[in-house]
Amino acid sequence: MAAWKDGEEKEKAIESAQESFAFLEKLIQGKKYFSGEDEIGYLDLALGWIPLCLDIVEEVGGIKLVDAEKFPSLLEWAHNFAEIPLIKERFPPRDALANYFHKIVGLKRSKK
C-alpha cells in the first residue's frame, strides 16, 4: 500500500512495512535461510517475492523500505535466495514485472 498511498496514509504504510521487515530481520539473523539450514524451507519460499519485487515496489512507489544499514541480514538472505539456480531460472523478467507494477499502482492511484 505504501507504493500508491499519499501523505499520512503513505507514511503509516511505510512504517508498517518496515516493522514487518524488522521482524523478518530478527528471524534471519545468523542464518543463511529461514529454515536455519543450508536448504530453503517453507518460509523462504513464502517470502521469495522480496528479492524479486521489493526494489520494483520501491521504484514504482518512490519509496525506500529496506536499506542495508537497518536490514543487512534480510538483504543477504534475499541475495542468497535469488542466486539459487532453481529460483533464479523461474523469476520473470524484471522489465515485465516492473511494467505490471506500474499498471497496478497507476490503477490504484486513479481510484482515489
SSE blueprint and pairings:
Elements: H1 7-28, H2 42-46, H3 49-61, H4 72-82, H5 85-88, H6 94-110
Helix pairs in contact: 1-4, 3-6
Keywords: Cytoplasm, Transferase
EC number: 2.5.1.18
Protein name: Glutathione S-transferase
Note down, in words, how this protein is organized:
The longest helix is centred in the first third of the chain and has 22 residues, at 7-28. The protein is globular. By secondary structure, it is an all-alpha fold. It has helices at 7-28, 42-46, 49-61, 72-82, 85-88, 94-110. 64% of the residues lie in helices and 0% in strands. The protein has 6 helices and no strands. The model has no long low-confidence stretch (mean pLDDT 93). Residues 1-112 form the GST C-terminal domain. Its EC number is 2.5.1.18. Is involved in the conjugation of reduced glutathione to a wide number of exogenous and endogenous hydrophobic electrophiles. It is found in: Cytoplasm, Cytosol. Keywords: Cytoplasm, Transferase.
Question: Oligomerization state of this entry?
Answer: single chain
pLDDT under 50 segments (min length 5)?
none
Along the chain, the helix and strand elements come as HHHHHH
The whole-number mean of residue pLDDT values reads 93
Query: Percent of residues in beta strands?
Result: under 5%
For the largest beta-sheet, the strand count, sense and barrel status come to: none
Helix content: 55-70%
What is the overall silhouette? globular
Number of helices: 6
**Helix-strand makeup class:** mainly alpha
Distance between the first and last residues' Cα? 13 Å
Radius of gyration: 15 Å
Strands, count: 0
Keywords: Cytoplasm, Transferase
Pfam family, one: GST_C_3
Function: Is involved in the conjugation of reduced glutathione to a wide number of exogenous and endogenous hydrophobic electrophiles.
Protein name: Glutathione S-transferase
